[in-house]
Request: fold
Amino acid sequence: MLKSFTKLMVAASALTLAACATGPDYARPATPGTATAPFVSTSAAVSTAAPAEDWWRLYQDPVLDGLIADALAANTDVRVAVARLARARAALREVRNDRLPQANVGASATYNRFSQVQRAPGLNSESWLIDGGLDVSYEVDLFGRVSRNVEAARGDVGAAEADAEAVRVSVVAETTRAYADAASAAERLAVAERIVALLDQSLRVTERRVEVGMTTPLDATRIAALRDQRRADVPTIAAERQAALFRLATLTGRTPQELPPVAAQRDRMLRLDQPIPVGDGAGLLAR
Reply:
């Protein structure tokens, strides 16, 4: 009777300790499934195809591809995020090793040489003392310490991966925006200068018409005022383009003077020749 009671107590204690060890596992909240109806506009400008990681290649601009590669290589935040991710992965490997048996091997050798005075009769004057040992230890994860440490380290790796990806997305987006702003400003600058030239031409024609009495001086005054107004827009647009190029130089780790001339040669806005892939609604909100 006593033996049965002892076995029952041991089993109950083991079950109790196991319950304390496991604890409640993390359960990810349920996320809504793929949207059945179009989440965004149904126009031909977007599609439900999964977006690519290198989405900027949709513009098919080799200059932009090179600038983004330079920005990712030169950005300090990207390097810091990658280093943090490597540290988190190393910590996970170290914690996982706690599940394995730990072994320590030691060995030593001592050489002794005795003089005639020290040597006992019948013994050699030289001797070797060799000592070796092997210690093997294994931690039984009775209370779940190792398992929970592994889960925590795995969570740290996931957080570091998310941080690194967020930094990468931010650098790529800012570089693309700066390049697009510079190209857009260049196109608007060309349009503004063309408008000023056309207004100059129209003013000359109107002034001739005034000279021959075919129109009033008020028409010439209005055209001159409009021309001056459009001419005043030219320096503003040029400054916007220069500011965008300065941002682009900073993002790629260069001074404005070191920015490749090819980066400033584009004088047309970035345009897509295909619909923008945005995926489904749930994926878009998650991103």
User: Anything to note?
Assistant: The domain at 51-108+125-275 is CATH 1.20.1600.10 (Outer membrane efflux proteins (OEP)). Residues 145-211 form the longest helix (67 residues).
